[in-house]
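Q: I'm writing up a methods section and want to include an example of the input and output format. Could you take the sequence below and give the corresponding predicted structure tokens, formatted cleanly so I can copy it straight into the document?
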Amino acid sequence: MRRSPIVAVGLVLVATLASRAGAGESLQISDPSWSPDGKSIAFDARAGGSPSDIYTASVDGANLRNLTPDDPGWNELPSWSRRGSAIAYETDLSGPLVARVRYSVVAPDGSGRRDIALSTAIGPIHWSAGDRYISFDGRFYAEALAVGSTCCDSERLLSVGLSGPWAPRMMRVVISVERGNDAHLVTTSSTGTLRRRLTHGRESLRALAWSRDGRWILFEGARGGMSSFDLYVIRVTTGLSAHASGRSRRTASASCTRWRRAASTRRRSTDARVAV
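A: Here is the clean output for your methods example:
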């Protein structure tokens, strides 16, 4: 995955600071997450063969802080909340025969760490508007959780499929729902109800991001039985989609002008699974 130059520069500075701080071995850094104010980065890092921990640092490489020094296991994939008051992360506690992943939240200064969920898969964490919910992947399910919940029996199973990002201002999340050999984009509420399917056909898709105004969703996937993945955008209210990338600038430009109807407004609730 290509990182933006700004993130790459920040991580180089953080690694430099870690080395100068006398860590013994340079930190191996991955999975950066920006703070909402753009002044800090959260990331997971490890030294040598030791398990990874969650760190924060300023973008100039200063103020390096380990948030999880006493949390055993491999702490990974930090995700900064939208309001900036918390960082969610995953701890891989899996054994040779059992997959076990714990989800936790911690304040940016390392205080107030608490466990909020157990799952069986490693994947991205997505925060809702108002920092009320997170969504994440189970082994086969997209799941959602109220952040104030007590661990570990209040996850809601949204659907068979993969989790995705939340809308900027609405309490809606877009997930990838598996139906047979295909995976379609569906928006749903935090309870897994009020579902609306956005795409149809032979395809395997996963949502990446909402536009800031909440009108568009960027997603990746293979469509029309094709084996290669590409980028697309879709209008949430109308279901109109466009090819967002291509093999050449001309191809991408031409495809973006050929809009096609990709969804109906029919509400679906047949395969919603909700467990509280």
